């Protein structure tokens, strides 16, 4: 049932191109616009939404952090993403014009369920993004957009995460389409780019041998740091989470701009630091800033592992290890940039003799608060 792979996690990593394609299937019409009629919240209600709040845990929370960038950019609706376990305890401000999005692979995560119940009690509309048909979270929501990752068996989430991202982009683009923002043309072009993304994920998967080799060479390290900016920041958090849960290593993700506000003190000789570099096209200011961050940490002896768009030569002189990913629109980059980090964590776990599919102390679905 592992389809020839040693672990479910490897199988699920390999299934990502299909999972992404399946999640898009039937959701883009012949004219290249989104048709999400299955989300049974009328367009008239979506036009009135004045705030979006995303609640989720763990990896799904990281998808939600990325969604915030997409939603605010394409819809101009203020959006916040919050850990489900923190949400209801701070007495959040919600009303009928708030759209709450609950993201969950299992659909059974108690923290997320309690957050959405609280949101509905306050009159907010709840849209679930979920991978498990008929599970509790979609049953208790006003609407659901299913991710079509197929069953995810390994405890560490991989393909579900990529499909959560796709679903989040679909919601963001759909909200933009329904409300008609100045980004109409960009929205159409990003929908086209999304249809190409499965092939790009496949390309990344085909070039992972050097990443596995690198991971094996780091098996005796104590710590790995991850840096990113913009949508690369949640990717850094996700890379660190994967490493903690699988390799049982100390790993931390930072916003690269925060370095000088503290974390740079952690940089010493030979500490591996993974840097997720945004596309040099589009927001070039961001790109320049991260290049100088890489220079700063390298000057202090860090061993830099740089994930960058193919052909981004500006980073080459500062990358001890370069991991290239295909060019995508800036906001979509997490779909390709996360994949090497999954492979990296999985290989490190194997090299350290850990149980990849069943990490210690973890359960696939956390049904207690
Ligand atoms: C990490 C991981 C967990 C889950 C989290 C939420 O690899 O699997 O962090 O993402 O427990 O689970 P769901 O998505 O089922 O609500």
Automatic annotation (TrEMBL):
What EC designation does it have?
A: 2.6.1.16
**What task does this protein carry out?**
Catalyzes the first step in hexosamine metabolism, converting fructose-6P into glucosamine-6P using glutamine as a nitrogen source.
Keyword Cytoplasm recorded: yes
Parts of the chain that traverse the membrane: none
| Keyword Cytoplasm on entry | yes
Can you state which reaction this protein catalyses? D-fructose 6-phosphate + L-glutamine = D-glucosamine 6-phosphate + L-glutamate
Q: What is this protein called?
A: Glutamine--fructose-6-phosphate aminotransferase [isomerizing]
GO molecular function per UniProt: glutamine-fructose-6-phosphate transaminase (isomerizing) activity
Q: What is the lineage of its organism?
A: Bacteria, Bacillati, Actinomycetota, Actinomycetes, Kitasatosporales
Query: SIS domain: from which residue to which, for each copy?
Result: 42-181, 214-359
Domain of life, per UniProt, equals Bacteria
Quaternary context: Homodimer.
Catalytic residues of the enzyme? 364 (for fru-6p isomerization activity)
Localization? Cytoplasm
Which keywords belong to this entry?
A: Aminotransferase, Cytoplasm, Glutamine amidotransferase, Repeat, Transferase
């Amino acid at each position: 049932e592992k389809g020839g792979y040693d672990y479910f996690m490897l199988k699920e990593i390999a299934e990502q191109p299909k999972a992404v394609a399946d999640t898009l299937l039937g959701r883009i019409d012949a004219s290249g616009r989104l048709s999400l009629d299955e989300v049974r919240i009328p367009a008239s209600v979506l036009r009135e939404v004045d705030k979006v709040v995303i609640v989720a845990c763990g990896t799904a929370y990281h998808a939600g952090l990325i969604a915030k960038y997409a939603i605010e950019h394409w819809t101009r609706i203020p959006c916040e993403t919050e850990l489900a376990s923190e949400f209801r305890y701070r007495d959040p401000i919600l009303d009928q014009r708030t759209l709450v999005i609950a993201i969950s692979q299992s659909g059974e995560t108690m923290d997320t369920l309690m957050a959405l119940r609280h949101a509905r009690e306050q009159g907010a509309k709840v849209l679930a993004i979920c991978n498990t048909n008929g599970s509790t979270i979609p049953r208790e929501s006003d609407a659901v957009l299913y991710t079509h990752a197929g069953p995810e068996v390994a405890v560490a989430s991989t393909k579900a995460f990529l499909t959560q991202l796709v679903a989040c982009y679909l919601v963001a683009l759909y909200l933009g389409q329904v409300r008609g923002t100045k980004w109409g043309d960009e929205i159409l072009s990003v929908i086209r780019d999304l249809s190409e993304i499965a092939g790009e994920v496949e390309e990344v998967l085909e070039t992972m041998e050097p990443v596995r080799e690198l991971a094996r060479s780091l098996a005796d390290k104590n710590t790995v740091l991850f840096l990113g900016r913009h949508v690369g920041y949640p990717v850094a958090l996700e890379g660190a989470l994967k490493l903690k849960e699988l390799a049982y290593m100390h790993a931390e993700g930072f916003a690269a701009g925060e370095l000088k506000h503290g974390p740079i003190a952690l940089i010493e000789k030979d500490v591996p630091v993974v840097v997720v570099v945004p596309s040099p096209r589009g927001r070039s200011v961001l790109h320049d800033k991260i290049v100088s961050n890489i220079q700063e940490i390298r000057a202090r002896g860090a061993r830099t592992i740089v994930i960058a768009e193919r052909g981004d030569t500006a980073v080459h002189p500062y990358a001890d290890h370069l991991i290239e990913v295909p060019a995508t629109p800036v906001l979509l980059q997490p779909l390709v940039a996360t994949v090497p980090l999954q492979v990296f964590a999985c290989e490190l776990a194997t090299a350290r003799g850990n149980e990849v599919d069943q990490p210690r102390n973890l359960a696939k679905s956390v049904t207690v608060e």
